[in-house]
Each structure stands twice: as structure tokens, then as C-alpha cells.
Design a protein that fits this description.
alpha+beta; eight-stranded mixed sheet; globular
């Protein structure tokens, strides 16, 4: 079982352009998922379906950069647009970290099963650091 810690950057409608730029800078493999095909209960605006829901650049030097476009209705403030992402397949470990990180902070999205099958949550810890925790379905 593994876990990974990396930055997660939010953009306003230009995440794809940014990811392609970072790939040109650092090299590596780029994976992009859009909002197209998300379940109707997610309430995705039809004009937003081609935007980046999740983009990931994995470089030959061993680091990972994740990015997404901020959906309509969610706030994005420059300076608060970088989160720390914890992801992996060790659900007990990630759950424990989630519980400790969110205690005394603000839960933005509860740690629940997400449409992509993982257990996912977002919080701001008591020091103001933004966290995303994603435990892959096993």
C-alpha cells in the first residue's frame, strides 16, 4: 500500500493550458479528465463539461503535479488556489490522516465515496492549509 503527497493547483478555465506548459517544462506523462460524463447529481454546467476535472503530470524525475479548473459556484482566490493532496490506496492510513487534519478545521467536502469510486474529502486545517485526501477504491 502506498500514499503520495503533492501540490494540487486550481485554475480558472486554463488548467489544460497550464498542464501542457508544465509538461513542456518538466517532461513526463500527462493525464486529463474532464467534467464530461459526470453524474447529473453533480450539477455540472453544460458549458463546463470540457474543462479539466482532474489533470495529473507525472515527471521522469519522480514528482507529481495535479491541477483542475474551478467549477462554477466554487470560490477560487489567488493565493488560496494551491492545496496539498494526499492520495493512495491505504484507506485506514488516509482516513486517520483525514480525521486529524480536519479536526479543528473546516470540512469543505466530507470524506465520502466520490463518483470516480475513491473515498475523497477536502478540508482546511486549523492553520489555514488546504488539503485534499483521496483513497483509491481497492
Amino acid at each position: 500500500m502506498t500514499v503520495i503527497l503533492n501540490p494540487y493547483i486550481s485554475f480558472s478555465d486554463n488548467a489544460r493550458e497550464a498542464l501542457e506548459f508544465y509538461r513542456d517544462v518538466f517532461g513526463g506523462e500527462l493525464e486529463i479528465s474532464t467534467f464530461e460524463g459526470m453524474p447529473p447529481e453533480m450539477g455540472v454546467d453544460p458549458s463546463f463539461v470540457n474543462n479539466v476535472m482532474h489533470g495529473q503530470l507525472t515527471t521522469p524525475d519522480g514528482f507529481t503535479l495535479m491541477c483542475a479548473d474551478t467549477p462554477p459556484g466554487m470560490s477560487r482566490t489567488k493565493g488560496d488556489d494551491v492545496s496539498v493532496s494526499l492520495s493512495g490506496d491505504d484507506l485506514p492510513k488516509l482516513t486517520g490522516w483525514w480525521e486529524k487534519l480536519s479536526a479543528g478545521g473546516t470540512v469543505v467536502a466530507p470524506f465520502l465515496q466520490a463518483p470516480w469510486g475513491a473515498t475523497f474529502g477536502m478540508c482546511v486545517d486549523r492553520f489555514g492549509v488546504h488539503w485534499m485526501v483521496n483513497a483509491a477504491a481497492s
